[in-house]
Amino acid sequence: MLTDPKARIGMVNFINTAPLYDVWLRTVRRPDWTVVEAAPSVLNRMLYAEQLDMGLVSSQEYATHPEKYLLLDDISISASGPVGSVFLFSRCEPDDLAGRLVLLSRQSQTSVSLVKIILEDFYGVVPWYKVGSVLEAQDNSDISAVLAIGDEALILAQNNVYPHKIDLGKIWHDKTSLPFVFAVWAMREEFCRNNPEIVRDIHRELLRCRQEGRKDLQNISKRVGPRISMDADACYDYLRGIEHDLGPEKKKGLIRFIEYLIERGEGVPEALPLKMFS
Question: Which tens digits make up the pLDDT trace of 185-214?
Fold first, then answer.
C-alpha cells in the first residue's frame, strides 16, 4: 500500500550538484523521501507554496521569505572564486553596458540579483534588463549581454560566441574577498518543528553523499559530462571548483549578499542573523 511521503525534497537538476546528487541517486533508498528535480527558480516557488518540505533553493529565496524557512548547516552550492557556470556573456566590456540590453536567465533569482549588484554597484553602470531564453539570444545583436547559469552557461562557454565572459563568482570574490553562496538548503520551519529527526537523517545522508562524491569526482565527471557535451577532464576541472559546504566563510559571504539585497529592497532585515536549524 502506498503511503504519503514523509519528506518532499527539491534538488537542482544542473550538473553542479552531481558531486552530491549523483551519489544520492545511486545509494539512498528511502521511498518515504521523494525528490523533485528542477531549476532553482522552480524549486523556490514550490517550497514557498509548501509543495516541498526542503531543498536546494536560491539564496535570495531565503532572504526574501525568512519567516518561512530554516537553513540546514554545511550544505550549499557555492564557490570561493570562479564558479565556472554563472557568467555574464557580453559583446562589450561590462563598463560599456550602461543603457544597453542585458538578457537575464529565468532559472535563478540569486544570479539575477548578483549580476545587478556587480554591474550597478561594482562597475557603476545601469543597463536595461529583460528576462528571456539566453540560448536563443546568440544571434540577436540588439542584446548586448546575457546572464546564463548552470548547464546553459557551460554550453555557451563552449560556443565562444561572446568576446567577453565574466565569471560572477570571481568578480564577487575579487571585490569582497568572500565566497559566494548561490543556493542554500532551506526547509519549511513548520516541517522542521514537527519532524526534527527526519531532518537530521536527511542531513546525515547529504553529508555522506558529499564526502563520497568528492572522492569519486573523476568517475562522476565521466558520467555527467556527456549531458552537455563536455568531456570528462573539462567536467572534472569544473566540478572541482564547485563547493557544497556552508562553513564560517561561506556564511560571511551569504550574510554580505543578503546585506546587499536588503540595501536594494530585494531582501528583508529579518533574514539576519541567519536562521539555522539546530
Answer: 999 999 999 999 999 999 999 999 999 999
- Sheet with 180-188, strands from edge to edge, namely 33-38, 7-12, 54-58, 180-188, 69-79
Walk me through the domains of the chain, giving residue ranges and CATH numbers: 7-80+180-271 (3.40.190.10), 86-176 (3.40.190.10)
Residue 4's Cβ-side half-sphere holds a number of Cα atoms within 13 Å equal to 4
Task: Give the per-residue pLDDT at 248.
Answer: 98
Helix (H) or strand (E) holding 34: strand 33-38
Residues pairing with 186 in the sheet = 55, 71
Cell numbers 519567516 correspond to what residue? Answer: 67
- Measured CA to CA, the distance from residue 19 to residue 197 in angstroms comes to 25
Cell digits for 90?
Answer: 557580453
By 3-state DSSP, what share of the chain in percent is helix, strand and coil, each rounded to 5?
50, 20, 30
Residue 2 has pLDDT above 50, yes or no: no
Of 9-13, 19-23, 138-142, least confident by mean pLDDT is: 138-142
Is 79 within 8 Å of 241 (Cβ atoms)?
A: yes
Kindly indicate the confidence band of residue 215, based on its pLDDT and cuts at 50, 70 and 90.
very high
Which residues lie below 8 Å from residue 37, measured CB to CB, with a gap of 6+? 11, 12, 13
Identity (one letter) of the amino acid at 28? V
Confidence band, pLDDT 50/70/90 cuts, at residue 99? very high
